[in-house]
């Protein structure tokens, strides 16, 4: 009889607990949407502010520095730069929402079309780079943590420090001199040989995928040969970060009592590492990999310049040299949106994988 009141309380509380759990999902979804919208609005504000403080006059870039004052003022009014800043910002937000990012002075085409053309090249290179970084960095970090203080551990840590210290352009130039010029293991700069240009219909913009869809293995292997070296350079930098973070997470888990208990029970070291110690670090490691991927997408400017890769980093560099502010702001906005999107996606996956965060 002593347990009957508790049972009654539990039974009475059960119906009220379910509605709260049902309402939690719409509230969480609404909060997620509002958070994304506010973050994107802040990104638009920062991009707009950058366009106003950068010492580049978009009117001069359009009409030239020898244009008469009347022509200059007419072009300034046409661009809307004579209106108040708050009106300009509202117009800028409306244009971005409708997909209008202006017209590039360098190419004469809409910036949105240019970005749709160059972004898949960066996406392809960064995706292969993060695959290399995860495939090598995670096992290296786990193995280094399991052999703490050994020569192997020291070697892996040196590789990580090397990845932090070496400039991307230097490593790219050394890679070209060694693997392309001397050993001829890979193809040189560019995304594809000139005589293959235009032979594959751009469906996704990703050459590897489009060549497979077209059933052209020759173009696929040529594109992969051009992609291998720049993607490996990016993969090396992500490998350095991922391996160091994996090692740090694993060292913390290997010091826990449940790992000691598993070893005392006689479980094989492989099971202790991957089944017991590695599982708790999957969630924070997911965030690390997501941030590393976003960093590759936004920080590949030097690699794209060295390898003449027609991606968004190269496009942004050319736009800056030509004082093409519409292209600069459009590329900056896309890079920022990608970073925000990957961040929010990793947060959502964090809640899915870790019930404690729901």
TrEMBL record:
Organism of this sequence: Plantimonas leprariae
Compartments (UniProt record): Cell membrane
Main location: membrane
Pfam families: BPD_transp_1, BPD_transp_1_N
Molecular function terms, GO-annotated: dipeptide transmembrane transporter activity
GO cellular component, one term: plasma membrane
Keyword annotations of the record: Cell membrane, Membrane, Transmembrane, Transmembrane helix, Transport
Lineage: Bacteria, Pseudomonadati, Pseudomonadota, Alphaproteobacteria, Hyphomicrobiales
Record-given protein name: ABC transporter permease
Family designation: Belongs to the binding-protein-dependent transport system permease family.
Membrane topology field: Multi-pass membrane protein
The keyword Lipoprotein is annotated on this UniProt entry: no
Record-annotated membrane-spanning stretches: 28-50, 125-146, 158-181, 219-242, 283-303, 315-342
Sequence ranges assigned to domain ABC transmembrane type-1 in this UniProt record: 119-346
């Amino acid at each position: 009889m002593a347990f009957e009141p508790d049972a009654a309380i539990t039974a009475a509380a059960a119906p009220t607990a379910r509605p709260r759990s049902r309402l939690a999902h719409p509230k969480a979804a609404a909060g997620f949407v509002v958070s994304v919208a506010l973050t994107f609005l802040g990104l638009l504000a920062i991009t707009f502010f950058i366009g106003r403080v950068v010492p580049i006059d978009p009117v001069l870039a359009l009409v030239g520095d020898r244009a008469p004052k009347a022509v200059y003022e007419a072009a300034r009014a046409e661009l809307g730069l004579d209106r108040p800043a708050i009106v300009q910002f509202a117009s800028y937000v409306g244009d971005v929402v409708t997909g209008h990012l202006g017209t590039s002075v360098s190419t004469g085409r809409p910036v949105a079309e240019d970005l749709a053309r160059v972004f898949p090249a960066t996406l392809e290179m960064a995706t292969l780079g993060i695959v290399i970084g995860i495939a090598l960095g995670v096992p290296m970090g786990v193995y280094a943590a399991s052999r703490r203080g050994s020569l192997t551990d020291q070697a892996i840590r040196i590789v990580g420090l090397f990845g932090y210290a070496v400039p991307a352009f230097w490593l790219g130039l050394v890679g070209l001199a060694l693997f392309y010029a001397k050993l001829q293991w890979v193809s040189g700069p560019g995304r594809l040989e000139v005589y293959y240009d235009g032979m594959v219909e751009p469906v996704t913009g990703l050459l590897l995928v489009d060549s497979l869809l077209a059933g052209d293995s020759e173009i696929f292997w040529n594109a992969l040969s051009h992609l291998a070296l720049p993607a490996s350079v990016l993969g090396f930098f992500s490998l350095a970060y991922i391996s160091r973070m994996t090692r740090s997470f694993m060292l913390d888990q290997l010091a826990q009592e449940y790992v000691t208990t598993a070893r005392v029970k006689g479980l094989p070291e492989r099971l202790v590492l991957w089944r017991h110690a590695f599982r708790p670090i999957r969630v924070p490691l997911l965030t690390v990999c997501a941030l590393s991927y976003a960093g590759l997408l936004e920080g590949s400017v030097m690699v794209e310049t060295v390898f003449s890769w027609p991606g968004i980093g190269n496009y942004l560099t050319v736009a800056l040299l030509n004082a093409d502010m519409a292209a600069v702001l459009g590329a900056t906005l896309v890079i920022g949106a990608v970073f925000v999107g990957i961040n929010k996606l990793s947060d959502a996956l964090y809640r899915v994988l870790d019930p404690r965060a729901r």
